Amino acid sequence: MRMYKLQGNKRTPLSVFISYAHEDELLRQQLEDHLSLLRRQGLIADWHDRQIMPGAAWAQEIDEHLEAASIILLLISADFLASDYCYEIEMQRALEYHKRGKARVIPIILRPCDWRKSPFAYLQCLPRDGKAVTTWQNSDEAFLTVAQGLRQVIEQQQIPLRPLPEEERKNRTALIKRVRTIWIEGLLEHSLHEAARLELRLQEQPDASANPWRLQVQELDRPPQPLPPDTSIVQVYDEADSELLILGEPGAGKTTLLLELARTLLDRAEADEHHRIPVVFNLSSWAEKRSLLAEWLVEELWTKYRVPRKIGQSWMDSGQLLPLLDGLDEVAEEARSGCVQTINAYYQHRLEQGPGPLVVCCRSQEYMALATRITLHQAVSIQPLMDEQIEHYLQSAGKQLEAVQAAIHKDPILREFATTPLMLSILVLTYQGKSIEDLVIGTSLEDQRRRVLTAYVQRMLQRRSIETRYTRDQTTRWLAWLAWQLVQHNQTQFYIERMQPDWLPDSRLHRRYYGIVVRLGIGLTAGLIICFSIGMATGLLYGILVGLFVGLAWGLVGGLTSGLAGGLAIGLMSQLKPQIQPAEVVDWSWRRLVKIGQLKNRLVIAIGSSILISLPSSLIILWSSRRESGGEIPLPLLFAIVIGIAVITAVGTVLANGLTSGVSSKIEDERNLTRPNQGIRRSARTSILIGLVGSLIGGIVSVAAFISILLLQIVTSASFILLLCLMLLFASLSGTISGLVIGLPNGGVACIQHIALRLLLWRSGLMAWNYPGFLDYAAERILLRKVGGGYIFVHRLLQDYFASLPLL
Q1: Is the peptide bond before 355 cis (omega within 30 degrees of 0)?
Q2: CB 330 within 8 A of CB 491
Q3: Are the C-beta atoms of residues 366 and 336 closer than 8 Å to each other?
Q4: What is the pTM of this model?
Q5: Could you read off the pLDDT of 642-665 as tens digits, one per residue?
Q6: What is the 3-state secondary structure (H, E, C) of 447-481?
Q7: CB-count burial class (<10 Å; 0-12, 13-18, 19+) for 750
Q8: How far apart are CA 265 and CA 271, in angstroms?
Q9: Beta bridge partners of 793
Q10: Helix H or strand E segment including 47
């Protein structure tokens, strides 16, 4: 559509072409009077054929002004429809320009006539809801609503006076790219029936929207009106003033239409930096907190698209977002009405600040069962496929689908089943190349749907082109459990690393096992690290003094005792969070560094584990040194040195923890996860990196204790090699404990929790041990679809089917 252009500090007015029958001359003059203020304010420059000068080529003048118009007004009456020039030439050319986005066509219903079956019937007309101007008690009121509607259109087409700052432009571009990657490239272009697209037919659904004029204008209670066959969802959206409700039966193609609309809106946002940013949101997660919709949208921008809350809130406040809300039917039934009320409250608030585009998508049956309606200008529903569409679709496959064609002709239930694109695609995938005897005939539509879905699953699991790695019973059971969990947690997309302990079977025994296994895992991990670090450090260097073999033996004993003691201490003292929080991205904050109170738990673990780990190792080394020196080191001094080592190690560990307390980690944006379980692998890497940094700092800090060690040489006359061993012992103890205490909370514990959860679920027979491999296998069988590092069922209908199956 054309926009305002700036000339100096002035705007060039929009050119408005008025197409009308000369019999409506008086009504056209009244309309011009009501548009006079728009004309005086320099917003429009209207033109009609009465302005043609004598001697001018009138047909050429009309063509030139029609082609240059930004807005074309069709003044509809019986005379307009009867006029060959108005109907056949001006109207047809105007609709062509409208479809190309060159101009915006607005029908204005002047007098009652049979216009609802006309080619422009799908366009939003004025006055609202098609009540003809001459049927109003006061024609001025009717023309006032027309003028106000035109002003709203004009204001929507204004271009802001200033270009966007570079930083804001980058943020817009990043979000647009993420939305396109996730929903268009990742989902729409890989939809089940994308290969053989069917043109979906739409119809108006006036009873689906809560129109405030419903009780005052009787004409609003009209039945649904089919739109012209070639009407696209983008045209409907444009004529609905960007406020649209999309309804349809399961598998009818609602999400596909929504994503097709999103694709066009993303193109517009890329071409025009002032166009609102279309973002797809799934309403299933709204029921978790049931907050205000604006707050929920900002939070979803952060959790799903990784848009900082400050930026998201700024976009929300300035009206730069265009929410496309999918899955209202996926909201828990008891919360669905509340969700509609929240959407309406958001919509009303946006209207107070100006036009607020909004699109909502829902299943027809679930929506029509609600007592509350969504307050949007227009609602459309997807009509079932017609017999000729189904016939053409099946004939395109030739003899491979002859059995399906014969069965559909014979069985009315199967024919009704095939009236949605998804079910038709499933029929094709299931029965392609089979005989008519292979078709399953049901007794009802619901029974037929279930039987065909069962046949579809069986057919996909029998595909010879793919290696069979799991039995049919295993695949069905594991997918049934996954679907049930997604339904229970109001999710549609599954990420392995986002599983939580509440996915375990609902029994205290499983929860207790989970806690025990996690603590044992933490203790074993810490014990092995301590054993290796302390054993190698003390054994090799002490071996220089008494021999390599003896040194390694002493080191092994010291490492094992320190590992057992330290692992037990860390495992028992670790505080487990109820939720698994992977550490996929490292963050640093100076504020976190100065908040000493947050170090309490770490310091308790650091001091306790330092003493338990350092006592066995230092005692063994010093006791053996006393034996080698012939008992020259008195026992009281020996124990004093042991206690000193423990204290110095604890001090070094505490200081290292203090210096690294500004380090933290957070969860990565799910949309940036490109491989299954990538988040847990990143958590392991984060834990190791942060642990190494902590170890290095702890070791360096503990070397400062070497000053105290020099004093030991004066008292004990110990050799320099022994002092070097003690210094290394300090560094190893402090560094190892610092690394564990810092590294484990930043990803390490999350990895152990995840492994424990996977282990228990595997032992319960609810998932494969190689879960990514199984999910990839299910995706190869066209039961799941892989989207980045996550998975979704190929359709919500298939997810519901698996969720309804019993867990064998």
Answers
A1: no
A2: no
A3: yes
A4: 0.57
A5: 555 556 555 555 555 555 555 555
A6: HHHHHHHHHHHHHHHCCCCCCCCCCHHHHHHHHHH
A7: buried
A8: 10
A9: 784
A10: strand 44-47
